[in-house]
Amino acid sequence: MFIRAREHSDTVPWVEKYRPSSLKEIQGQGWIVTALQNFAEKKKIPHMIFSGPAGTGKTSCAVAFVNDIFGGKLSSDSILELNASDSVRMDTVRNEIKAFSSSKSIISDSDALKFIILDEADNIPKDPQHALRRIIEKSPPNVRFILMCNYENQLIDPILSRCALFRFILLPKTTILEKLKKIAKKEKLKLPDNTFEVLYLISKGDLRKAINFLQIFSQIETDDLSGLYQIAGYVSPTVFLEFIKSIKKSDFNHSVQIFSQDPFFAGRNFLYQLLDWVLSEPSLSEKILPNILEGIAEIDFRLTMGSDRDLQLESLVALLCEVVKES
After folding, report:
1. For labeling, which of 94, 170, 207, 306 is most exposed (least CB within 10 Å)?
2. Contact 212, 242 (CB under 8 A)
3. Sheet holding 48-51, edge to edge
């Protein structure tokens, strides 16, 4: 990923095509960018942990930081990228890291910095994390680790204490919209009104996801934004509004039938839509809100455990009809 030729940019996914190549191009992570720029300038670099939600720029910052360190001249003997989910056994990771750390660059001196980028580090089980801690401890002085994760509380304290922790926040709406509009302009896209607002809504602050949705939607050649909701696995606003009207009438059968109009949606995405409505709907009394929120949380848990989508949502519909009827 980090050493990618850009000559054939037409075949590169837009997420990579428009990935920032320098820290100067990173937006929305102010103090983090400043700190990394100072590290790059002074060449005094600690091991680091980039933690935060998906699509907030962790990988982009790592790419841009390493690019700035090497002046854009990256080589395979200067950077090693590993994914925690790629290697089940820590022995594999250990061997790769040892081989990489001890290898000598053919284009730079032996003391040149080397970077090991370990993505999804929070997916590593606790015992192998202790092995990783020892690897970090014993790494040569010119090797630096950048661990990326969604949840730093899944990392053991000995790793956290050996690294500088950078917590990435969700990108501001203005930053996401600006990036999407720049891409659309460069790709010469003709899009329906409100496209960018919908992209922001369905991506929930994940810029990578928003860019992917934009690239897919650009190939459909339609002015109907319901296609964008379908791409993202959401119920279209028209269908969702009909569903809410039916719920307010406590009409269970019709509410369930509405789902058949939009068979492509993901169950958890529908729960996000429903939660947004519940938290903003003034007609729902505080008396019934706890029951609804508890029901949504329970169904969300069941869906993550692999339960049947339609069966679980029908159960939730029954609850909604009941509590609305009693209110």
Report:
1. 306
2. no
3. 79-83, 114-119, 143-149, 48-51, 164-167
Output the six-digit token pair for 253.
Answer: 């059968």
- Residue 1 is assigned to a structural domain of this protein: no
Give the separation between CA 83 and CA 294, rounded to whole angstroms: 35
Residue 209 · residue 272 · CB < 8 Å? no
Tens digits of residue pLDDT in 183-217: 999 999 999 889 999 999 999 889 999 999 999 99
For the entire predicted model, the pTM comes to 0.82
Question: Quick one: how far is CA 10 from the chain centroid?
Answer: 24
Mean pLDDT value across residues 108-116 = 72
Distances (CA, A) of 176 to 7, 269, 273: 26, 20, 20
Half-sphere exposure of 77 (CA within 13 A, CB side): 11
Give counts: helices (H), strands (E), the chain: 15, 5
Residue 90 confidence class, pLDDT cut points 50, 70, 90: low
Rounded to 5 degrees, what angle do the CA atoms 232, 235, 236 make?
Answer: 95
Residue 188: what pLDDT? Answer: 92
Same domain, 29 and 159: yes
Report yes or no on 107 lying in a domain. Answer: yes
d(CA 111, CA 143): 9
Are 53 and 162 contained in the same domain? yes
For residue 112, give the 3-state DSSP assignment: coil
115-145 pLDDT, tens digit per residue, is: 999 999 998 888 888 888 988 888 888 899 9
CB 144 within 8 Å of CB 46: yes
The domain that contains 182 carries what CATH number? 1.10.8.60
**Is 262 domain-assigned?**
yes
DSSP state for residue 169 in the 8-state scheme: P
Structure tokens at 184: 């659309």
Structural tokens at position 268: 């958890």
Pull the structure tokens for residue 318.
């029954």
Examine residue 80 and state whether it is found in any structural domain, yes or no. yes
Q: Which pLDDT does position 258 carry in this prediction?
A: 84
As given in the structure block, the two tokens for residue 40 are: 């790059």
